[in-house]
Amino acid sequence: MNRTLQRLVTYGFVFIGAVASIFPLYYMVVGSFQLKTDSAFSGLIPRPGNLGLTNYREVNKAISLLPSLGNSAVFTLGTVVLTIVIGLPAGYALARLRFPGKGAVAGGLILVLVLPFQVLMIPLYILVVRDYGLADNFVGMILPFAVNATAVLIFRQFFVALPDELFDAAHIDGAGELRTLMLVAAPLTKPAIITASVITFIGPWNEFLWPFLITKKHSMQPLAVSLGEYVSTNAATATNPYGVILAGACVLAVPVIALFLVAQRHFTSAALGSGVKE
Amino acid sequence: MSRAPRGGPRSKTLIGLYLVAPYAAYLVIVYAVPVIQGVRISMLDYVYAAPGADVPQPFIGLKNYRSALSDPQLRRSFLNILEFLAINVPLTVVLGLTLAAVLAKLTRMKTFFRSAFFVPYVTASIAVIGVWYFLFSQSGLINHVMGGWAPNPSWLVNSKLAMVVIALEVTWKQLGFYVLLYLAGVLLIPGSLYEAASIDGAGVVRQFRAITVPAVRNVTILVTTLALIVGANLFTEPYLLTNGGGPNGASMSPALLIYQNGVEQGKPGIGAAIGILLTLFVLLVAGAGRGVQWLFQRGEDRGPRRAADRGPGAASGRGRTADGGQGATA
């Protein structure tokens, strides 16, 4: 009896939590299809007569979704690729090798994690836009995000956790460090790469401020920026402003949520939380 | 952290340097140089000039800091962040840890619940802002539910409530990430501890307080630190949800002021100075948080918490976590 009650309370608690987590997203989807905004209780359940794609057509007219999505993809994939190409070897070196300046790099990694990024807003803006002339340019857009610090930490923790014997065996077989990394360690890193990629993906795909700062041309703006600008300037003139915003929000949100749901089988809290252990 | 080198030490050193060099270069270009530049610009009368034009940028000492600090909006923005943290941190720690502890005990649908909590975290701020804008608007669902009790003026245009809505929105959005961090910590606690406690007759609540809470102290420090950083970075929500930190600066944030001064009004010196002040603010709040932890710690050491001392700290080799505590930034 007591056990049953306990289980009931447990599941009840997480169930309420899950509903609270998902409800606003459900509401976002429903609202995006409503022909006429219905913010009363009746709006909670989609009514066939009030559903359609008008909002999607409208938001597409205002900010041309496909090019914006393309910009988001370039910005995001560039960041993910650079994070793996630069961050994975760095994580390996920090975990397994000894070299001068190691303490400084490790310290820098931790500092980066706790430095509020907005502190760098003005100097980075001046550096990238004024000094390097990289406004309206993907290089300038990607540069500050190029290597995700959390991902480097995930890689480091992953390589720390691999058993020494694995590396000893490779060394005895005469493999050098580079061969060991490429042939022994790298093939094992799939879960770390997936977790790190998802974490990295979220950043640039959802980022508003930085790409907003350095893009003046609409044709260069990622979707988060064009939608944000639409919300702050033009939305008021639409006949159904909420519906149009929500349609844009759905287009922006769905790819990441889908990616997460596909990857989540491999996305372990253990990999993410490995930084927690020390 | 470091491991004894195996194999030829010289080549190993070289390989290590090669592998880490691109990342080190990135840290220098994107962080070290801008930080130094930020300090320099904050002491200059910096003017945006046309490319190629040579414009003098005279050194003016701390004048930018004085102008920044004399702006009542800036003081307001720091107080707003404190209000944000006062709502966000306790909610995050309590809900995050409780949900993680419950999640760890589930036998079924674990993945479903874990994903459900995490989905808001992966959703773009802009998208989330769209829904909250809808939910909390004058004629939105929340006001419909509240009927006669709906606040007047409505949430987002009410100077007492705008920051509260932002704090709740960010807490809701970030919670799933913190649940995962806590879950990783909770799963490390050996089950034998709970069995022993339950044989000793400790109930679920007492087990949670005596075993779980102290065992995840390190995670709590991490979570409160990250929450502080999120608070300090707050930009998109006040910019869009409350239409530029409104009403009347009631939800103004330091990051938004950096943007308004440094970019919109073309005063990068003042923007950079606010950036430095924001860094000092973060260090100050984090330091205060450590102080609060230390007080907690002393109180607990005098009190009877033997069960926790014998606890998972010793079992999982994390005995040195004794500097932890709750509510680092409370």
Low-confidence stretches of chain B: 1-7, 303-330
Instruction: Tell me about the largest β-sheet of chain A.
Output: none
pLDDT averaged residue by residue of chain A: 88
**At the third CATH level, what is the topology name of chain B?**
MetI-like fold
Number of E-type strands of chain A: 0
Q: What is the molecular shape of chain A?
A: globular
Number of helices of chain A: 14
CATH hierarchy class name of the domain at 63-221 and 256-277 in chain A: Mainly Alpha
Number of strands of chain B: 0
Radius of gyration of chain B: 24 Å
CATH topology of the domain at 63-221 and 256-277 in chain A: MetI-like fold
Q: Helicity of chain B, in percent? A: 55-70%
Superfamily at the CATH H level of chain B? MetI-like
Characterize the overall form of chain B: globular
CATH architecture of chain B: Orthogonal Bundle
CATH class of chain B: Mainly Alpha
Distance between the termini of chain A: 40 Å
The helix/strand series of chain A, from N terminus to C terminus, equals HHHHHHHHHHHHHH
List keywords for this structure.
heterodimer; A: 278 residues; mainly alpha; MetI-like fold; 0% strand; B: 330 residues; 15 helices; 69% helix; globular; disordered N terminus; disordered C terminus
Tell me briefly what this model is:
The complex is a heterodimer of chains A (278) and B (330). Chain A has 14 helices and no strands.
